[in-house]
Amino acid sequence: MGEMAKPELESTDIRNKLEDLSGVEIKPGDNPYNALINTCHGNAAEIQSLYATHRIARNLQQKEKFLSHEFKELIIDPFLLRLENPKLEPGFKDPRNCLVFWARPPDHIIRLVVHLQQALKQAAPNLWLMPTHRMHMTTLEIAHSRSPAEIESMVALMRPKLASLTNIPFTKRARLVKPFISYDLSALAVSFLPAAGEAVLSPPPVAPHSKHINHPGLLGNDTAESDTYTYHHLRRDVFDEAKSTGVEIGSRYVVPSAHITLGRYLTQTDHETPKQRQKWVQAIDDLNKWLEGEVWDVQDGEYVGEWIVGQERGLDARNGALWYGGGRTIMVGEGF
Length: 336
Prior knowledge:
The chain is an alpha+beta fold. The longest helix has 24 residues, at 44-67. The protein is globular and about 55 Å long. Helix 2 (32-39) packs antiparallel against helix 10 (231-243). Helix content is 35%, strand content 16%. The strands form two sheets. A five-stranded antiparallel beta sheet has the order 2-6-5-4-7, sandwiched between helices. A four-stranded antiparallel beta sheet has the order 3-1-8-9. This is Ureidoglycolate hydrolase.
């Protein structure tokens, strides 16, 4: 008898779909980011409100799942489990190759994220944490779960425009504010909202800085004016520029979310009992209250909760098995 075929591993996305809870409908064939911008009449405050609606609704939905009497188990990522515990399947390699454009967090955001990770690790000691050097926010996913050869052909198609794509944030400054822990049955992230006129908290760009670029809060610029170009507009522009190369864009989801993954669950140990799950949900609620009271809109605070996308480095065009921050960089845009 021949060997039995190993069962195909299932991505956590299959069991844990990230649905859009903002209420915006996307028409097939259109730039998907235009739908939300048009619904909000391009207004930054309305765009911020829809991003907030999505993350609040999702947290409430997930909280109910954690506290439900019908709770069965966390959704453990089988790929990450094998990468972190090689004894499970010696020689295992993640076969899912991707092509993405990432925004990398600046140093002051890394400091905040590490503080959040440490607090979460106290509440759930067995939590897997995303290493700081791998942290990222996906601005646009071109392709996922493909072969290296398929990705290589896409990179070749896009290569002539990679410099312009990765440098979009250098001249178009989009600001993110109000960090907040978002979570579900498989992972946690810190999510942000597009800015809408809040005071600037980030460090200034490295001198000298061009007077011709409208940087939020610089040279007396009104943030209400600079914030008319939101992170959602940036995603729209990256999508359009990418599509102009002729590449087929196969994003898994297009939701109003700007987030950095903080960690994932690799065991049920910390969440087996209703008491443990109640403690976990309370720890996240407490962290979110701390963020709102001690970080949001706080001038000269211990932590800065604002991120101007492109600070320190531009977008990172990346490919490979990069689900957990791996892979390789093809090109990085200029930072400010």
